[in-house]
Every structure is written in structure tokens, then in C-alpha cells.
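QA checklist item 7 of 12: single-chain prediction sanity check.
[x] sequence parsed
[x] length recorded as 725
[x] structure emitted
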Amino acid sequence: MSQVVQKIFFFKTFQTFLNDWLLFTFSSKLKFAIKVSLSLTLAFMIPMAMGWSQPNTAAITVMLIASVGGVSASVMKGIIRVIGTVIGAALGLTLIAMLPQERMFYLLVLSLLVAVITYLYYAYQGDSTVFLLTAMMIMMIFLQGPENAFIYGVDRTYMTVFGIVVYTLVGLFLWPVRLEDTTKQDAAVLTNIHYEFFTSLITRLGDSLPLQEKMIASEQKMQHAYVRSSGGSLDMTLHADVWDSITNHYKNIGAILSALATIRVESEPIDYSEYIENYNAISSEISAMFKGCEAAWKHKRQIMLPNALAISYRSTPEEGLSHLQKSAIVTQAEMLRKLHLSLRKLSDRLNTLNGGDQTVHHDNTMVRISRFVWFDPEYMKATLQLFSVFWFSTAFWILFNPPGGFMIVLLATLLGLLTTFSPLRPTILMILFSIGFLFATLMYVFVLPHLVYGWELALFMFLYTFIAFYMINLKLTIFFLLGMFVLGINNTMNYNFALFLNILLVFYMFLIILMLFYHFPFSARPEHLFSLMKKRFFKHTSALLELGRNSQKESWLAQKKAEYHQRHLFINSAKMRLWGSQIDTSYFSSNSKEEIMAFALTCEKLAYKLQLLYADDKENENNTLLIQISAMKTENIMAEVAGSLTEDNTLLQSALFESKEAVIEQIEAKLNDLKQSIDPDDHTVQEISGFYVNLALRYSVWIALERSHNALQTIDWNNLKANKF
């Protein structure tokens, strides 16, 4: 045991020595390229040195994991990937054993099984390489037919597992990237942005808009890092409830700060300390908790929790205040109370995570974050598209019996997972493939024949892989690196240029199949998907506004619908930003990239405000004043407006947003009428306060809808439908 400790200590000391004495520091990209290159070289050279069969399988496994799984590595991730590989091998062998003579029925069952795994691959928000490896193993078993399926399957499984183990070990011992550390760093950055945003809102100094945009981007980065990391970190798995609670609190804090920003911008300047007695003390406590949370993430310090907050109002006459001013004051106080409470709960969760006692808060109502996104239309369409690719390539294999045989089906289906509904364009793939194969041809003719010793081959493979992972974008690396597997490297090399061109033909055949199905049966054009995401976003918005209004009558099914709309609201806003950034505006001269991205950002802000409004509707579902007012209304204007924004022609709705002053006058008039028909003595102070908060939140959503409408009108949607040619 002491020898192991000494070795680990020596390894860390050596790493420290390198970092201290080198005249330069390794960037994260350089470190990752070195780690992957070393992993792939070891995964290939060790089996060759040992005389094992199928060394290509181990190397391809490393390539796939590095391209899809990212830079992080952990023992748990490695174990999960091994389990996925073994499950895939077991399923593949079971199918062969059950249907050895029924080829078409076997292919039908295989295609359905791969389709299910494909859907899980897309729906899973964590490390989806486990599903990729499962699908790969199921299909690999059939490569040599049913005759030698067991021996061949065991060999393939063994070498796939070997590749996983090599990649995991190299990732653990050479510049390890701990999953929880990355998420903690992102959380510390987000906490600092929240603190700066809050300070700008309280002091009313500076423009808070850039900070709000920065906050949205940082929250999405942290959320993505957490979901991607949670399945591969033992610490995060053991504390899953705590991490889920922390993530939910950060999302809630972001929504509250967005609401405070709306109150600051839209209301007349109000000195809240004139109406809220402990306003300055509340602000100081909130600022201190933000700084405490940041220190807890960075240095694992325990956070001192303040006492529970009680809002204390000054007894000031209200005659000179309008209804919206009253709602702004009450909402400011309520949002500060909710922010204070969320920070106390977040601080308590952080104390638990850093080894402290569970002190005050226990989030029994916190919903566990699902790692799967169910019923997303794009994931379903991608699955159908891959199903079509499988059967088209299978028909091509059966009818024409090309070189490579079933390998064409395997490659087209597996690499289709990476290209379907992705920003990768067919022309880019074809160019990159051609460059990769040209490079491989040069290596095959001018370099490989001159390699004599094993270390020379190892250096060649290391440099080849390093060029791919360091010089080329990670999403495109795999398509360049495939050229290395055309070379047919083995212990006994037989240089046959005709065979080399045959293998090259196999790769081009499956690439052409992928290109045929890139826009069929569903279009993957960025401008089309951007318009589609816009329509879907406003459908979710309209549905949530309608469901929130009727929250007191919600059934179990309505609750599930609301959860679906809430989650997909944010997913669609993120997809809108993704596909908007991919639109080539040189083909659509009536639109600019700035206008497209500005519209996507206004939709993200609307999603935050809508989330807070729906949560408030749920919280006040038993508020008798809101129930009474809701019963008086027969229409839901905001839901209707949101529904109308799904259409590209929005001129019919422009009248609703022409004059903000007119809207405010209408609201004030209706509230004065309402005041005459309702006896305040029939309702508690909490219910009246809840009404004003709900009013302010609805007003903030209305303003966000107006901004989305204005941004939407700057885009020529008919121009986006035009043919590029």
C-alpha cells in the first residue's frame, strides 16, 4: 500500500515539476489532445504487441468516446461504459442465437432494438456514449455472420472493454479532469455573476442587461455541466438529492433576479427603503450570502446562515400611489424574501455538501431533475431518420453486395447518430473526409513503408491522432481520424493499393448514404429549424399561461403537462439560439445575425419570467382573492397573444402593443373597478400581498411578450423560407 502511495505522490510531484519549470503552460485543448493521442496509441499498440486480434476495435472505441464523451474521465464513467458494452454484446449474441437462419426477421428485430437505443442516446442528457457503445456492439456481432458469432463477439467485446479501460486510466492519471470540480467552478462563476447582477439592481448603478445575458449563459453552462457530469461522478451520484436541490435553487435565483430587473426597468424610480423598514438590512444579508456561497464553492468554507426573514413595512399613507406602484413595492419585498429564502436553502445545501451538518432547511418538495428529455419531437424525428438510414443501407448491401458488406450499415448508422439534426453540414463532412483520406493516402505511400520498429509506429499513431484532436474542431475530429483506419495497420503489413482503395470506397459509400438522408425525410436546414423552434416556443408559452391561470383546478395530468411545457420551453429557447447561430445570413439578405440572436435572447428572458409566474400561480392556488378574480375573467389575453406569435405574420397583434401607457391606464381602471367590487376585510394581508405580487409578475410577462413581439417583427420570416438557390 505504501508503494502505491509513493508512486502516486511521485506522479503528482512530477506533474508539479512540469508546471513549475516549463516556460509555457499546457492549454486544456493541448492536454486533451495529448491524453487522447496517448490513449489511442496504447489501445492499438498493446494488443499488437500481445498478438491479440481486433486492435482496431480498441482504437475506434477510444476515438468514439473522446469525440462524444468529452474531456472528463472517471472510474464510474468507465464502469458504466463497460456495462453498456457488455449489455450490447449480450443482446447481439442473444439475437444471433434466437434467429440464426432468419436473416430478414433478425434484421427487423435488430433495427427496432437499435432504434430504441438511438432514442435513448438522444434523450439522455448525460454521457450518452454508453448507448453509442451498446448500439455498436449489437451491430458488430453480426459483422461475421452467425457462424463464428460467439468467438468474434467475445473478441470484439474484450477489445472494446480494453479501449474503455485504457482511456479511463489515462484520463485518471494524466491531467485528470474531475467532473464535480468542473461543475463547482461553473457554480462559483455563476454565484459571482448573481452577486454583481443583484448589486447593480439594488444600487441602480450601471446597465444590468449585459449582466442578465451573462447570467443566462452561465446558468445554461452550469446546468449542462451538471447533467453531463452527474452520471459519471461517484460523489455527485451519492449526493444526487443535494446537487438537484442546488441546481433548482440556482435556477430559481436567476428567475427572481430577472423579475427584479423587470421591476427596476418598468416601474417609476421608487426609494423602497421609504416603504420597507428593513430594506437595507435585507440587501446586506443577501449580498453576504452570495459572497459566502462563492467562498464555499472555491474554498469549502461553511456559510453562516442568517435568521429567517420577516418583511417590515413602514406605516406610510398609500393615497399617492397607483396600483402598479403598490404592486412594485410589494413585489420587490416579496422577491427579496424569496431570494433570501432560496439563498438560505442554497447555503444549507452547500454546508451539507462541504461536510457540515444539515442545519435548517430540508427540501422535501424539490423535484428530482430527470436525466432524460422525453417526447422531444426532434429526438423522435432523428430516431426515424436513423431507422431509414439503417434500412436503406441494408437494402444497398443485400442488393449490390458492395465491398465491406454489413460494415456499411454499421458505419452509416453509428456515424449517423453524430450527424443527424446536428450543425454539421454534408458539404463540410465531404470536404473533411476527402482531406482525411488524402492525408491517409500520403501516409500509406510515403511514411508507413519506411517504419521498421514498434516505437516508430507508436510515434506515427500518436502524431496522427494529435493532429486530429488538436488541429480540428472536436465535433469534426472523428471524420478526419477515420482515415487512419483505412490504412489497415497490422503486425504483418501487406501493402496493396487496390485493397486500400477498396476500403476507401466503403467509407465514401456510407458517407454518401448519410448525405442522402441529411434532409430526408425531415429537413435539418438551420433556418427551417429556427422557425420551427419559434413556433414551438410560443405554443409552450401559451399552454403554460393557460395552465397557470387554472392551477387551482389542476389534475395530475395537467401537472404533468405543465412540467413538460416548462422543461421544453427552456430546451426550445436553447435550440433557437443554437440554430439561429448556424443560419447563413448571406443567403437571406433581409435578415441579420444580430436580429436573429436578439430575438432568441428575448425568448430566453421570457422563459425565465414565465417560470416565476407559473411558480407563483402554483403557490397561490388557494388564494381566495386570486380565485375570485380569476372567476370574473372569461378570457386569457396573454395566452391568446402568445399563441398568435406562433404565426409568422404578427401584424394583427401589433395594436395590442402600440401604446404601453394605454395598457397601464386600462390596468389601473380595471383595478379601480375591482376595488369597488371586493371587500378587503374578506381577505387576509397575505392574500392581498399575493395578489399584488401576481399582478407585477403578470405585468413583467406582458412586457417580455411585447419585447419578443417587437424582436420577432424585425425578422423577415418569409425570407427565411426562401430557397438558397
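[x] summary fact logged: Residues 526-720 form a domain with the Methane Monooxygenase Hydroxylase; Chain G, domain 1 fold (CATH 1.20.58).
[ ] second reviewer sign-off
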